[in-house]
Amino acid sequence: MAKFTSQIALLFIVVGLVCTFVPVFSVNESEAKSLWDTCLVKISPHCALDIIAIVFGNATINDTCCHDLVQEGKVCHDTLIKYIADRPALIARAALYLKKRDDLWSHCIAISKTA
């Protein structure tokens, strides 16, 4: 039960981070719902936080999260990271974040092929 509670808490953290980093005016309601329905539900909250920490920080990813990321799909990964990187506070380093996004995707594809 404690594990379930912590997973719910992580889900709320991920949703909060996405809401914080995604400007309301850049995502219309139907587009945000589409992203939620097709992308965020495919990946665990823990892995979503790890991916954000990798792209926007200096964290590392484990093989399980790599597999989740590949299952989420490149379009979802690219779109979600682009939305976050387009925040006014982050846009000056958007090129770096997009490169890290692409590097992470390549790394995870390589991990998935070896499993």
UniProtKB/TrEMBL annotation:
This is Uncharacterized protein LOC104771379. Residues 38-108 form the Prolamin-like domain. It comes from Camelina sativa. Residues 1-20 form the signal peptide. InterPro entries: Prolamin-like. Keywords: Signal. It comes from the Eukaryota. The keyword Signal applies.
